[in-house]
Design brief:
β2, α3 (71-78) and β3 form a beta-alpha-beta unit. The chain has helices spanning 4-14, 37-51, 71-78, 95-109, 120-137, 157-173, 179-193, and strands at residues 27-32, 55-59, 85-88, 113-117, 142-145. It is of the alpha/beta class. The longest helix is centred in the middle third of the chain and has 18 residues, at 120-137. The chain has one domain (4-193): 3-Layer(aba) Sandwich (Rossmann fold). It has seven helices and five strands; from the N terminus they run αβαβαβαβαβαα. α5 crosses α7 (179-193).
Length: 194
């Protein structure tokens, strides 16, 4: 298992990825729900308007509040009717299955980039999970962290600590990117979009 220092370094490096690239091609916004799902979905609508995107993927790990995951409810949260493609994932147990679903949809739709919407403390694990999956597939697309203001102001440090521990455990299983996998992704990104 990697050390705490290595896990923190991976977290910081992953959230330091560019928030956009020049000529990102066909793109979608992917929402990785969890806590504050309504808020994240609202922010995805704002982001779509800002970048001129009409595709939203909502990856779902929470099943207790099914109402928010209905198409009509999400359309209300998005505050726009200009979303041509709205894709909802049914309940899934974890971030890895969320990322698999998002990457499979992206491949089917021929996307070149994805804007990731997640809460601050979860963002690094989402990115590292997606990079590990892309590394395994040997096919990359651009993933950009789309940071949204956290409605809790600053997350409790305990959430960051918990995610760092999950990154340590999941990296040992190969479910999140290693330092080498992250560096390979960054090298590809620099070659393709410099």
């Amino acid at each position: 298992m990697i050390s705490e220092a290595e896990a923190w370094a991976l977290m910081l490096a992953s959230v330091s990825l560019p928030r956009t690239v020049s000529n990102p091609g066909k793109t979608a916004v992917a929402v990785f729900t969890g806590q504050n799902a309504n808020y994240l979905i609202e922010e995805a609508g704002v982001l779509c308007k800002a970048i001129g995107c009409d595709q939203i993927y909502i990856a779902n790990t929470r099943g207790e509040d099914e109402e928010i995951y209905s198409y009509p409810r999400i359309r209300v949260l998005l505050k726009t009717n200009k979303i041509a493609g709205l894709f909802l994932q049914s309940h899934t147990p974890n971030t890895k299955t969320q990322a698999q679903w998002v990457l499979e949809l992206a491949e089917i739709q021929g996307l070149e980039s994805i804007q990731i919407v997640a809460l601050d403390y979860h963002m690094a694990r989402v990115i590292l999970t997606a990079i590990a999956l892309m590394h395994d597939r040997k096919k990359y697309i651009v993933i950009c962290p789309a940071f949204v203001p956290n409605p809790i102001a600053v997350s409790e440090l305990g959430f960051f600590q918990e995610n760092m521990e999950k990154i340590r455990a999941y990296q040992a299983k190969g479910d999140v990117a290693s330092r080498v996998e992250l560096l390979r992704y960054v090298e590809w990104l620099n070659l393709e979009y410099r």
